[in-house]
């Protein structure tokens, strides 16, 4: 846990700068203020000591992650609404279901971040569409062996994120 | 259990088994072999359980309305990458912000969120069930609102909880856990404060049940308890109003100056202290927390003390010469 004193110092010295940096990324003062606040909250929750040699680079790393999370949420909402627009009315889920599903999608999207497109695609075809490895291989035009490796790699990646960070 | 952590090879084997079983349509012979593998070592079984639960968590086919999931995920991912490429050109690979944040993965979910307040800050949060959670200075909580319970983990600091009836899923208990205690709130509001060596709970309205430490016990409105490894002790004659901070106040009755300054110190950065010969002076009154410098300046009006600033962060009170 970093000392509160050091986070406070960081905050008082760099808060204005961080706010400006975030606003340049987000183009929106309210979101920038929220994410600046979140950045410092994240700092307080971290267990390791702070790297204070280059405080701005350090803050930027955290803030960048939050900006991406923010964008991911926006893009998911947008893509989801578009997908819903193509559904027959009877199949459009209730507001509650939509919220739940979006939350789940966000968690999954966040987890799959950083996977190679093919790995990600193969994994999603299995998880979302329930296709067998053979069907996925046909659809993607790759070998069965490759699909098996892709799906296993994706699961291993998720496993590490879920369990190894707690160790 | 916590020391056991399956190595990469075992995890990959578990994944292999799971996929093989799924692809084979859960063939009986394979199933048996898999069970044998699981039984050979505790590590195998743990890896298997984790892979299973992860697989379920990521199973989008079980969710209603998920028919558009693939399309949504793929489209949004492409756009996200374009945005990243466009706006974060910095030569730094932004691989997996989620990986970096590790355990905070679920922070964005309103059902399992973390809230924290800094020194001198107070925060109010409306919880998913309608309850109002207020955090005092320098406090942090984890929320775990699940199908069978509403749990608030006080990691440090102090909270005031105004309970709401759980309309979305009646019957889920509303629990607060601290290092020392597990409490259950009913209607009304109460304060829970975790200090270095104990937890204190004060009920101003409604009822709270202490599940631990000690035997189950009810706390009624107007009562305060101290909870630590020795159990629960009823506190008499409190020298301070436990929940006044929620209104931005410290309200004291005959409180020792030394204790009062320790209390004020929670809301400030730096260090506030007093000479031993004035620590037992008594103080009663209502003080505003919004500006603790101003608050300290008021003390010489009622007590024979002087306030001196060695630096902006280091304040010392001495007996008036």
From TrEMBL, chain A:
Keywords on record? Sigma factor, Transcription, Transcription regulation
Signal sequence, renumbered to the chain: none
Q: Which GO terms describe its molecular function?
A: DNA binding; sigma factor activity
A single BP term in Gene Ontology:
DNA-templated transcription initiation
**Does the record's keyword annotation contain Repressor?**
no
Using the record's annotation, list all stretches that form the RNA polymerase sigma-70 region domain: 10-74
Domain RNA polymerase sigma factor 70 region 4 type, chain residue ranges per copy? 106-158
Top-level taxonomic group: Bacteria
Q: Pfam families recorded for this chain?
A: Sigma70_r2, Sigma70_r4_2
Into which family does the record put it? Belongs to the sigma-70 factor family. ECF subfamily.
Q: Which NCBIfam families match?
A: PRK09651.1 (NF007232), PRK12528.1 (NF009180), sigma70-ECF (TIGR02937)
Q: Which protein, by its recorded name, is this?
A: Putative RNA polymerase sigma factor
Source organism per entry reads Pseudomonas wadenswilerensis
> What does UniProt list as this organism's lineage?
Bacteria, Pseudomonadati, Pseudomonadota, Gammaproteobacteria, Pseudomonadales
Q: Which gene encodes it?
A: fecI
TrEMBL record, chain B:
Q: Where is the FecR N-terminal domain?
A: 12-54
Query: Coiled-coil annotation: which residues?
Result: none
Pfam families hit by this protein? DUF4880 (PF16220), FecR (PF04773)
Transmembrane residue ranges: none
Q: Where does the record place the FecR protein domain?
A: 115-208
Matches recorded under Gene3D superfamilies: 2.60.120.1440
> What's an example of a GO molecular-function annotation for this chain?
sigma factor antagonist activity
Name of the protein in question: Protein FecR
């Amino acid at each position: 846990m970093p000392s509160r004193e050091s986070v406070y110092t960081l905050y008082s010295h760099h808060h204005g700068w961080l706010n400006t940096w975030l606003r340049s990324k987000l183009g929106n003062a309210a979101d920038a203020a929220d994410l600046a606040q979140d950045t410092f909250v994240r700092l307080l929750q971290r267990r390791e000591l702070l790297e204070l040699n280059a405080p701005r680079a350090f803050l930027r790393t955290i803030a960048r992650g939050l900006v991406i999370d923010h964008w991911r949420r926006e893009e998911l909402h947008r893509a989801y609404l578009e997908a819903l627009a193509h559904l027959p009315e009877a199949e459009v889920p209730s507001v509650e279901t939509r919220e739940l599903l979006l939350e789940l999608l966000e968690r999954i999207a966040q987890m799959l971040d950083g996977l190679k497109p093919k790995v990600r695609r193969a994994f999603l075809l299995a998880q979302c569409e329930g296709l067998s490895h053979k069907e996925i291989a046909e659809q993607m035009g790759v070998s069965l062996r490759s699909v098996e490796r892709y799906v296993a790699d994706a699961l291993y990646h998720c496993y590490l994120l879920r369990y190894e960070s707690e160790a | 259990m916590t020391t056991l952590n399956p190595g990469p090879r075992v995890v990959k084997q578990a994944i292999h088994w799971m996929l093989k079983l799924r692809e084979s349509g859960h063939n009986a012979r394979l199933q048996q072999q898999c069970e044998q593998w699981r039984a050979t070592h505790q590590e195998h079984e743990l890896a298997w359980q984790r892979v299973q639960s992860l697989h379920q968590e990521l199973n989008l086919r079980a969710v209603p309305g998920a028919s558009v999931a693939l399309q949504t995920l793929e489209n949004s991912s492409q756009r996200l990458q374009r945005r990243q490429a466009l706006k974060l050109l910095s030569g730094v690979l932004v691989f997996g912000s989620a990986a970096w944040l590790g355990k905070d993965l679920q922070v964005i979910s309103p059902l399992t969120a973390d809230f924290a307040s800094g020194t001198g800050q107070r925060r109010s949060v409306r919880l998913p069930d309608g309850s109002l959670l207020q955090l005092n200075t320098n406090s942090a909580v984890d929320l775990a609102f699940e199908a069978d319970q509403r749990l608030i983990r006080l990691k440090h600091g102090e909270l005031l909880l105004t309970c709401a009836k759980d309309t979305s899923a009646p019957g889920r208990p509303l629990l607060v856990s601290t290092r020392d205690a597990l409490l259950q709130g009913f209607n009304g509001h109460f304060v829970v404060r975790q200090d270095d060596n104990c937890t204190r709970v004060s009920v101003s309205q409604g009822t709270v049940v202490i599940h631990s430490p000690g035997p189950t016990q009810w706390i009624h409105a107007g009562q305060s308890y101290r909870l630590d490894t020795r159990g629960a002790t009823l506190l008499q004659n409190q020298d301070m109003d436990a929940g006044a901070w929620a209104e931005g106040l410290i309200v004291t009755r005959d409180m020792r100056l030394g204790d009062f300054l320790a209390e004020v110190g929670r809301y400030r950065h730096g260090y506030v202290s007093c000479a031993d010969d004035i620590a037992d002076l008594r103080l009663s009154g209502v003080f505003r927390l919004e500006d603790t410098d101003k608050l300290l300046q008021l003390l010489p009006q009622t007590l024979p003390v002087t306030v001196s600033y060695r630096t902006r962060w280091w304040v010392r009170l001495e007996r008036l010469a």
